[in-house]
Design goal:
Elements (H helix, E strand, L loop, with lengths): L2 H12 L6 H4 L3 H11 L29 H5 L3 E3 L11 H4 L3 E5 L39 E5 L8 H4 L17 E9 L2 E13 L13 E13 L2 E9 L2 E6 L5 E5 L2 E3 L5 E6 L6 E2 L3 E4 L8 E4 L4 E2 L5 E6 L9 E3 L7 H5 L62 E2 L17 H6 L4 H10 L4 H10 L1
Parallel strand pairs: 1-11, 4-16, 8-18
Antiparallel strand pairs: 1-15, 2-3, 4-5, 5-6, 6-7, 7-8, 9-10, 9-11, 11-12, 13-14, 16-17
Helix pairs in contact: 1-10
Amino acid sequence: MHPLKFTVAFLGALSLTTSSPISQLNNPEQERQIRDLLSTKPVYKDLPPLKAFPSDSERTIKAGEIPKYVIEYAPLVFLYSEERYMPYNIEKYVQNFKPTWRNGTTINIDGKDPEDPDYKTQKLHLRDLEKLPNSTPDEMVFLTSLQDFDKDPEFITGKHNIPNYYTGEIKDAPAVLIVTDKGNGWVDAYWFYFYSFNLGPFVMGFGPFGDHVGDWEHSLVRFYKGEPVVVWMSAHGGGGAYFYKHMEKESLEKTGVGFSNGKQPVIFSARGTHANYPSTGQHGHDLPYAILSDFTDRGGLWNPALNYLAYTHTPEDGIELKVIQANGSHPFREQEYGDWLYYDGAWGDPKLDPADERQHWSPFEWKYIDGPTGPLTKNLVRLSPCQRAKWWNFWSGCNVRRYIQYGEGMFDQEGNNSCGSLYKNIESPWIRKIVQILTWHGWGCFITDLFYG
């Protein structure tokens, strides 16, 4: 739809709420209309509903089964060209840590052999994660580094994990695939990408802040009867959802590279933070006027489908955390690694004490904060494509965009579909002026785009 028509439609919807906002709290009909406007439910109106806990008769796939189409449509990830912190192997990663409580007390690992050279340090193996105690709201389990992570050791940088130029494979950094059955023909494929370190952003010369050891990012490809419908990608606790058919798609297989004619949706991993976006350039987030931004470009192209661990997630009777090992790219590796996915603690060090010389404060955040939690804490049973709504998203909407949201910037921007594009295509200065007034000099387009995409 033309941007101007979007604006008119949105202004029409706003007319529903011209009375006092307080009065809308008790107006179910207007509440419903606003909720429908801000959600993507109409997109699926002719399709059967998704189910967080489908019954046996509603299920689409068997436990432990990875459909072929999930691999065919696996996302490709462009890493940033000057990325310092690359994807890493979780099996090797945990060997550089010991389990502790927040106060630094070491947690003894059940069954560890006193003759094991790792016994004194309680150095971890991946299978040990399933033996650790559960975290609670009052007490979190952490993986605490055995050496100074601030000096960028190899297990932090993963500097050798550069994608193969021809195939996109990273041999020493498997991705993690978790396939969840949403019933009635719907299947969600979650691809998790692990990096050993998150380098936080700078704001107005301050920073970096929000650094943390360990970094889990993920994307979701939602299928209906084997066809991809929606792609969602994580970014800073939120993320963006897009219709698959409108995303950039390429092909990167063992036989070589085929650009712009493939099946695999393309996402871009931002410098340092590894937040995911559908385009290159500068991406503002969380603060106005792009004060806080991520940057993406076409660095190494990573094909996670060539090296991945595979699992199915089959919640039953309200139990969300039932995971079945499947066979990924390397058969039986999942069985060798055990039930590490059930570890619900942090995948890195706790927030450093202010007295630690490595810790610094900026006007926005401490430099080093808690490490992140793992894949099973990412709301895999969600019906909305979005993992969760951010604090400012008071309507809890999840907008599936109809076109790619392009990044900004002088050098890496590859497109523009804002009001500016509309204005420059109107030759008559008088008509252009009228359109600018009707769209509030771009604000109408911005608001419409926010809700409609």
